Amino acid sequence: ERTGCWESEQQFQDQRLNAEYAALRSRLDTPAKENLRQLQLSWIKSRDRECANPEFGSVGWAAAACMTNETAKRRLFLQDYRP
Q1: pTM above 0.70, yes or no
Q2: Confidence (pLDDT) at 18
Q3: What backbone phi and psi angles, to 5 degrees, belong to 28?
Q4: Is there a contact between 71 and 17 (Cβ–Cβ < 8 Å)?
Q5: What is the pLDDT of residue 23?
Q6: DSSP string, 3-69
Q7: Alpha carbons 10 and 66: distance in angstroms, whole number
Q8: Nearest to 14 by CA among 81, 82, 70, 77
């Protein structure tokens, strides 16, 4: 049950992150857009690696919570991002 709640929240946070990312991209020139894209790809890999932490073991909700929290933090980062 907890996992489902976290997965729903993750989807909500992911939508917010995507909206913030799109808004930021619309204000950037082409080289800055590519730089942002590369930063996002690196962040996604880092987030996925961190949230696949073996310490979570079989506790699916812990990994889902990690993904949710990291996604929310990234949205705030993008909100304040200045190239």
Answers
A1: yes
A2: 97
A3: -105, 155
A4: yes
A5: 96
A6: HHHHHHHHHHHHHHHHHHHHHHHHTS-HHHHHHHHHHHHHHHHHHHHHHT-GGGTT-HHHHHHHHHH
A7: 9
A8: 70
